Amino acid sequence: MDASAELDEPIPYMARTRAYYGALGYPPYRWAHSGDVPFASLGKALGESCIALVTTAAPYRPDKGDQGPGAPYNGAAKFFSVYSAPADGSPDLRIAHIAYDRDHTRADDPGSYFPLAALKAAAAAGRIGRVAARFHGLPTNRSQRTTIAVDAPELLARIRADGADAAILVANCPVCHQSLALAARALEAAGIATVLMGCAKDVVEHCGVPRFLFSDFPLGNAAGRPHDPASQEATLHLALALLESAVAARTTVQSPQLWRPDPSWKADYASLARLSPEEIARRRAEFEGEKHRARPGRGASGPAAS
Fold first, then answer.
1. DSSP-assigned letters across all residues of 83-117
2. Where is the composition biased (Low complexity) (predicted)?
3. Residue from 117, 107, 134, 128 nearest 229 by CA
4. How far apart are CA 239 and CA 95, in angstroms?
5. CB 3.0–4.6 Å: which of 77, 110, 221, 241 could bond 97 by disulfide?
6. Burial of 241 (0-12, 13-18, 19+ CB in 10 A)
7. What ranges do the domains of the chain cover?
8. Is 186 helix (H, G, I), strand (E, B) or coil?
9. CB-hemisphere CA count at 13 Å for 251?
10. What is the C-alpha to C-alpha distance for residues 297 and 78, in angstroms, rounded to an integer?
11. DSSP state, residue 28
12. How many CA atoms are closer than 13 Å to the CA of 266, on its beta-carbon side?
């Protein structure tokens, strides 16, 4: 396959991050995989359903350093347990704590990674019954065991308490996609229908989920193109259509939207070709520092790919 043809394909995030963090001196990460995927049908008409929103974005905390548009990776802004907040306002959520695509997007429009406004508009238009009273944040946990045994059950309990019939989960970085895929599996096994919106196709399909809306956009834009309400509305409506139309697990729908006609942007994420040995050493030291900022006094093993 020539280079231009390869760029027409989705970015292979698992292979890219394996090579990238290997060059930084970390052991290879084993991504979650399962052959069996649970599937729950939507129990009532979408127009009568209560829909919960699940995000990996973090509430803004002014005391935790730069979390603004284009901010560098900020380990201090990470969160490590499920949180919930009222959905009736306009929460200030940021994604500076995760490895979104900082080369090609700035995370300066929350609508591109947190589609609460679009979901409320869908409720106002009668497309869904209502938005759940709370939205929920799920940690981007590299420990699959913790996600499965701790975070996913807690998320399930909160969504059940809200009386939600289904959930939309919106991913950002590669590990976000895995964490939310594991959570979607747990929700479906408990009878709650889900759709995962994301940009890392290989990570999600390797793990195995019931429904996946894939947008071939830079990481951090799973809910649509930034500053483009029409793109965000169209992306959400594709997710809602998938929620009600899928009849079996592992149903993937790809958004027809393009980030831009030229796919050359796909060559940049976790690209070793751009890095000198000195830059690789600098990034290794930077990652180690951020891990200690994220959990003061606790060493973390492996790459901070989230």
1. EEEESSS---EE-TTS---TTT-----GGGT-THH
2. 297-306
3. 117
4. 21
5. 77
6. middle
7. 46-254
8. helix
9. 20
10. 15
11. P
12. 21
Separation of alpha carbons 13 and 170, rounded Å? 17
3-state secondary structure of 58: strand
Q: How far apart (Å, rounded) are the C-alpha atoms in residues 224 and 111? A: 7
**Residue carrying structure tokens 């084993």:** 30
Q: Which two tokens stand for residue 236?
A: 């959400």
In tens digits, the chain (306 residues) has pLDDT values of 445 556 889 999 999 999 999 999 999 999 999 999 999 999 999 999 999 999 999 999 999 999 999 999 999 999 999 999 999 999 999 999 999 999 999 999 999 999 999 999 999 999 999 999 999 999 999 999 999 999 999 999 999 999 999 999 999 999 999 999 999 999 999 999 999 999 999 999 999 999 999 999 999 999 999 999 999 999 999 999 999 999 999 999 999 999 999 999 999 999 998 889 898 889 888 878 876 667 654 433 344 344
Q: In which residue are the tokens 């939207």 written? A: 257
Please say whether the beta carbons of 103 and 21 come within 8 A: no
The angle that helices 152-161 and 174-189 make with each other, rounded to 10 degrees, is 60
Amino acid identity at 164 = A
Residue in the structure block whose two tokens are 């995370």? 107
Helix axis angle for 116-124 and 229-245, nearest 10°, is 70
Secondary structure (DSSP) of 220-272: T-TT--TT-HHHHHHHHHHHHHHHHH--SSSEEEE----S-S-GGGGG-TT-G
- Contacts of residue 297, Cβ cutoff 8 Å, sequence gap at least 6: none
Would you give the end-to-end CA distance of the chain in angstroms?
Answer: 30
Which amino acid, one-letter code, is at 263? P
